[in-house]
Give the backbone structure.
Amino acid sequence: MELELDLLIVGHGITGANLHLRAKQEGLTCAIFDLPEENQSSSVAVGLFHPMAFRDSKFAWAGKEVFDEALSFYKNIETDEPFIQELILYRVLESTEEHNRWRARMEEPPYKEVLDFSARMDAIEAPFGLGKLRSCAKLNVANFIAKSITSLTEGHYFQEAFNYEALDAENGNFKTKGLSIQAKHIIFCEGLGVRKNPFFSHLPFHPAKGDLLKLRLGHDLKAAVNKKDFIAPSEDGLYWLGATYDNKATEALPDEGAAKALLESAKSFYADKIVPLEHLAGIRPASYDRRPFVGSHHKYPKLSVLNGMGSKACLLAPHLSNLLLKSLQGEKEIPPEMALDRVERYLKKKAD
């Protein structure tokens, strides 16, 4: 039996689901290979995203435009199970310097529409006040991934490991269980699973483990709050507290020391009762330079990768999925800071 496709997607976490639903909007035919238990990072993702780099009180490198594109993309997917929620995020300002910087930023044209200031907030200790960010949203990751699966043509979802040895990389042909799949492009969205991929295992990652706690709060915030860590509402009426950043851990095992640090962090700005209920951990697929890996293999152009977004997949994946598809169609070029040839230069320099 033969199956002809535009795209064969390997990996179906946040990034793979974004790529599939973006491709579906473009009228492209897709199949997905995935083992859900390998989507370890996506399975514990809170789904909170925004365009700010709070350290400098300014937009991060991806910019406000990327946030707007992501929000529009998620909103425009037809679904009976809503998976996007717009939120206000309050930043607990930590010094006079940050207070003054935030207030000054509010007067600058790119920020006027999205930044504001609040002197106080119930149950929050903020002696320097709170920065108010209107551009913030939360993706229900589980519902979003489920929507992608139900949108697939019947028989195009393969819940199994991808056998790289059964791939003809030059011609884009893949064989599995009596089925021959011919794809114009095969795109790997495997997170840290890419380390097992013989075509892209050279990509340099700097993984970072993150611990999360699910909480019951004594006072309902109805918003997200950020200081060193964040508190964000969950779909079940509870709250998430996270996330730690550990670039030395090699396993995604909940760490009691990390849980203690999170609770101490929360108590530094949340003044009411905190009851921890659940402790999760995951390892973010962060790249060596904090920029994603986007593009095609230098020897096998039918093979591409979309990876390395760290904790920012909910924000970046809608934009980068579109960028990669346009690149494969010859309509756009991958910016140098994301293109794969930068990796070759980095590895060569490192070897020298």
In short: Residues 294 and 339 are 6 Å apart (CA to CA). The helical segments are 14-25, 40-43, 63-75, 96-105, 141-150, 256-267, 313-328, 341-351. DSSP finds eight helices and 19 strands in the chain. The chain has three domains: 2-45+143-205+288-351, 51-138, 208-284.
